[in-house]
Amino acid sequence: MKTEGGSEEAKRRAGERAARAVEDGTVVGLGTGSTTAYAIRAIGRAVDEGLEVRGVPTSFQSRQLALEVGIPVTELDAVEGIDLAIDGADQIANGDGAGRGTLVKGGGGAHAREKLVGATADRFVVVADPSKFADQLEHPVPLEVLPDAHTVVADDVRELSGEPTLRDAAAKDGPVVTDNGNLVLDCDFGPISDPEELAADLALIPGVVEHGLFVGLVDAVYVGTDDDVEVRE
Ligand code: 5RP
User: Fold this and answer.
1) CA neighbours within 13 Å on the CB side: how many for 160?
2) Ligand 1 centre distance from Cα of residue 37 (Å)
3) Predicted complex: ipTM over 0.90
4) Burial classification of residue 113, based on how many CB atoms lie within 10 Å of its CB (0-12 exposed, 13-18 middle, 19 or more buried)
C-alpha cells in the first residue's frame, strides 16, 4: 500500500541529514529534485563554513543550484571516483516481494546521469519522504530515448504490456527534451511484480538511452518526517 504524506519539512530534514554525511575533501554526486535541493543548499552552507568538496551534478538544474550556493562543480570524467551520491526518488519499493529497495526515478528526466553517478559512487544515499514508499512499484517508468526512436520504442514497450506516453513540456508546445538532447517516454506497466526482469527487458530495447528503474544500487534511504529522520540501510 502506498503511504500518503510528504511535506516540505520532511524533505528538508531528509536532505539536510544526508548533507551531514558529506566528509571534508570528498567528491559528492548531486542528484536532482526538490528533496535533494535541500541537501545541496546544506552542503553549500557547509562550504561557506570551510568544508572542501567537489560536486558532480546530475542535471542542469542541480549544477545551477550548486553554483548558486558556492559548491565547486566538476565532471565525472575529471574525478577519480565519487565518494557519496545523494539523490531523490519518485517511488521506492519497501514490500517483502521481489525488488525491495528498488527505485523508480526520472521525474525530472535526469535519470541517465543520476544512475551513472549513483552507480559510480562508493555510497548512494536516497532522500525521500514517506509518500514515496509503496509495497510494490507501480509508478510509470521513464525511458530516455533517442529522439527519432520514440515511436519504435513505444511499440516495444506495448509488447511488454506497458502504456507509453511521450512527456510533454507544460510550458511549451512540444516534448520535454533532456539535458542530453533526448526525449522521455513515461511507461505505465501497472504494478511491477519483478522490477529486475523489467529492467533487463527495458535495457535491451534499441533506442533506449536509460530507463528509470534503479535495481540494487542504493545503500541507504534517509526518510524525513515532520519531526525526525529514519535511516534505512
Ligand atoms: C529526477 C528524479 C528526482 O530525484 C525525483 O523526481 C524526486 O524528486 P523530488 O525530490 O522533487 O520528489 O528522479 O529525475
Assistant:
1) 25
2) 10
3) yes
4) buried
- Is residue 91 lining ligand 1, measured as CB closer than 6 Å? no
Query: Is the Cβ–Cβ distance between 104 and 90 less than 8 Å?
Result: yes
Instruction: Specify the ligand 1 atom closest to the Cα of 107.
Output: 6
Write out pLDDT tens, residues 50-83. 999 999 999 999 999 999 999 999 999 999 999 9
Q: Is there an atom of ligand 1 within 6 Å of 106 CB?
A: yes
Annotation says 210 is catalytic:
no
Number of H helices, E strands in the chain: 6, 14
Compute the distance between CA of residue 181 and CA of residue 146 in angstroms, rounded to an integer: 8
For ligand 1, atom 4, the nearest C-alpha belongs to: 88
CA of 104 to the centre of ligand 1 (A): 9
pTM of the model: 0.94
Distances (CA, A) of 101 to 22, 83, 97, 225, 232: 22, 21, 10, 19, 10
pLDDT digits (tens, 9 = 90+) for 100-156: 789 999 999 999 999 999 999 999 999 999 999 999 999 999 999 999 999 999 999
User: Residues 140, 93, 28, 114: what is their CA dihedral angle, to the nearest 10 degrees?
Assistant: -20
